[in-house]
Amino acid sequence: MPRFRCAHLFTGHRWLEDAILEVDDDGTVAAVGPRGQAAEAQPLGVVVPGVPNLHSHAHQRAMAGLAERTGPRGRGSFWTWRELMYRHLEAMTPDDLEAIAAQLYVEMLEAGFTAVGEFQYLHHGPGGQPYEDPAEMTLRCLAAARAVGMGFTALPVLYAHGGFGGRPAGEGQRRFLCDLDLFHRIVDRLRTEIRPGAEGIGVAPHSLRAVTGEHLSRLMEDIDSDLPIHLHIAEQVREVEDCLAWSGTRPLRWLLDHVGVDRRWCLIHATHLDDGELADLATSGAVAGLCPVTEANLGDGLFRAAEFTAAGGGFGIGSDSHISVSPVEELRWLEYGQRLTSLGRNVLAGGPGRSTGRRLLTAALEGGAQACGRPIGTLEVGRRGDWLVLDDLHPLLACRRGDELLDSWIFSGNAPCVREVWVGGRRVVADGRHRDRGPVAARFLETLRRLRAELP
Questions:
Q1: Each residue's pLDDT tens digit, 104-140
Q2: Which residues are catalytic?
Q3: What's the predicted TM-score (pTM) here?
């Protein structure tokens, strides 16, 4: 049984000094606690749990930074960005997606993400041509995750329409379209591949724009009661306006009233909520899936995190469009957005004398584990052995102890401070570098060159 000696270990809830961490052969934590008279162990230094990334669209990593030019109509919006995203997908093959996902997951691991929820809606080939295997593209993301050692939750997407009320899909959405019968075939196929514990599966009705109330009702009847459910909601003001025009009700209110929301749900973005929606989401037990860097990049708006957390709401973080791939940057943006609107500091610390970094990290660990439906997020017996070793000799972390390490890691800059990353008790990053960084990057570069050459 692998045994590690940790000079400082944060379990996700408490700090232990000179602690022992033991991991079973299956990658679960077998013991954690004071060193005592334990036998010889491998020294690790400062250990903290790996961070779950609850919302990823892997294919979008290939276009990061390519939507920062104004168009003929001026500054642009989420909706003009979406049209560009559709164009970038037109020539993408399964091999391409696997190469892009592998590169993305390597970057995630080096930054400190150790698990990902892959919200995957690219179901068909160019022009909407079905693949022989209905789960082809999600299985390619799973293959990439396994190859580089990333924890994985498959979130296949139900995407049936192009707008509220069952509006027909547009030309750019043909690769996404999926009725309930096909969706269940995808889920059933993935069940045959997913390894329980080490991997997970959930369902992802894309949004109220892409599924109808009938779809949601039937889906809730058909799926297992323990599967996570992820859905985009209230990301954009126009989305709220369109929902009001269709139903007379705001998006989250419609979902609460017609479907119901509980701990199984992860509601992505939830940016534009009124007071009642915010309060009801906070008490529902659902996770707010926040992606602050993408939300800023797309001009979505700011989630009201201070009010939400004060009401007892839980959240996790994702990197969504992967304009940046860093748990530190996501958490920092989340707090800084609240500071800019409240004109105060340490807004999400949760009360006097508390560490902002610790509160943010603990919430992201708990919310991410719940949303991914896997035993991750904390270093406790029976959970997955996913952890980071911080570089406590780095100038930004030197001479820090306890919560000071978390605050300095999150708030003192963008320098990489993660020295090692372990997933399922196996090291995948050493000295800040993933074991397969070179060959993965070479394959990604080859893929990107071809896709750029074929871009319309």
A1: 999 999 999 999 999 999 999 988 999 999 999 999 9
A2: 269, 320
A3: 0.97
